Hints:
This protein has helices spanning 40-48, 72-83, 157-164, 178-188, 219-228, and strands at 8-12, 16-21, 53-54, 63-69, 88-96, 102-106, 109-110, 116-117, 120-131, 141-150, 195-203, 210-214. It is an alpha+beta fold. The protein has one domain: Pseudouridine synthase, CATH 3.30.2350.10. The strands form 2 sheets. Strands 1, 2, 3, 4, 5, 6, 9, 10, 11 and 12 form a 10-stranded mixed sheet that branches. The N and C termini lie far apart (45 Å).
Amino acid sequence: MSSFTPLDIVFQDDFLIAVNKPHGLLVHKSFIAADADVFAVQLLRDQIGKRVYPSHRLDRKTSGILLFALQEELNGVMQKQFMEAEVTKHYHAIVRGYTPDESEIDYALKRDDGVVQQAVTRLRTLDRVEAGFSVGKHPTSRYSLVELYPQTGRMHQLRKHMAHVFHPIIGDRPHGCNKQNKYFLDTFSMNTMLLHACYLSFKHPLTGDTIEIRADYQPEFSRMKQLLGFAESRPQVPIGQE
Length: 242
């Protein structure tokens, strides 16, 4: 049986609907997650009494904005916007170590079929903390709260890019740090990935209006943020969206 409460709807009109997906919820049925029997598509369909069509996807352990179309034809238009990088997406993540104030990660990624694709992610650091516990050889542990804006849309791009620059996202498996992940599981009972899709902006496919959607942190992200000692704040739109 489902352990998920009704989905938090953060945007809705006659054509599109967006929810704040919780950690651990699959978007739709997948052969790589045979253990799951609850999916965002079916939950939202049952909640609003209409068929819904996911315009993009989020990893199971990633929380945040998930956009659906309410008509299949319209969904093709939205999917095209995502594929052609016409949708602005911003994420927040808690990562290991102290990240630079701002940086750009330009590092090509290889798909499962061997094809190499250009991938670019912009990063801005929102806060840094030094926690009073030891995970490795040092007596304390350092973490950063970062804002990530992918300029391309490759699979697991943010996870792979943060691992590439040695600031893996806490809770990320298999790209993250096993030692950190085990410590957070054993000590804090934290078994998710601290990555949250907090902002989405796009042109409405029918009206042409600019749509901006924001989503607050899910409870587990907020709990870990508070536990580690980050400043109290809610997701904000980043400075500079050029």
